[in-house]
């Protein structure tokens, strides 16, 4: 299988050093032998049809990257490589892993400190706003798609759509709680990213990376039938009782505004006092 994004450099894939489970298969550490730079190599455990679809998507993303400014807030796609009978998707290496990894490895057992949560969320909001200014509609915000470097700086990993037909993978459970989908307003997803940002914030503050898993259908039903508050349904009592958390709780309430016309946009949230507070 050939593509104009096929990488010509030699590569040493460390299959004994699995970094995490990716969207399409395991992600390994790899070494570019031409530059000595470490990169990530995701093995595509897909059938031929699936591989073709993924590699076509990569080609499109690489073309977009070439047209964008440097220092973009997304994980850079390098191309793909065929090695030992497998196709690998090559991206820049983010040594801090995903936010999901960060929580699962114990950093979030008691919840992330307010200042650290604010720092992460401020970066996520800034990244989303920059992508939107470039004309990219971003709807999908998820701990698996927020990656950290060794200094705590974040980048987002696409694609960014709440649409299985586009992503080729099951949607995160949190997507099923977005009011626009619950109330059949899927054509108006312009602020879905704000709702999902609230889910991400609640996960950081509670330390539970699976805060919605297993509850998404129930949450959606309560939103639809009982007109329950998103804040009441998605924010744990522990987070609600955190000391000195008034700004954080107000941020969550705004993210979980059910009425999309009343929910703030990402640009409006950028100036929220919680993200701009000195402690952050």
From TrEMBL:
User: Quick check: keyword Kinase in the entry?
Assistant: yes
TM annotation in the entry:
none
Instruction: Write down the Gene3D superfamilies for this protein, in alphabetical order.
Output: Transferase(Phosphotransferase) domain 1
Question: Among its keywords, does the record have Zinc?
Answer: no
The Protein kinase domain sits at 13-275
Q: Which UniProt keywords apply?
A: Kinase, Serine/threonine-protein kinase, Transferase
**Which is one Gene Ontology cellular component term of this protein?**
cytoplasm
Task: Report the InterPro entries cross-referenced here.
Answer: Kinase-like_dom_sf, Prot_kinase_dom, Ser_Thr_kinase
A single MF term (Gene Ontology): protein serine/threonine kinase activity
- Identify the domain of life: Eukaryota
This chain's protein is named Serine/threonine protein kinase
Give the organism the record lists.
Gaeumannomyces tritici (strain R3-111a-1)
Give the gene symbol: 20354191
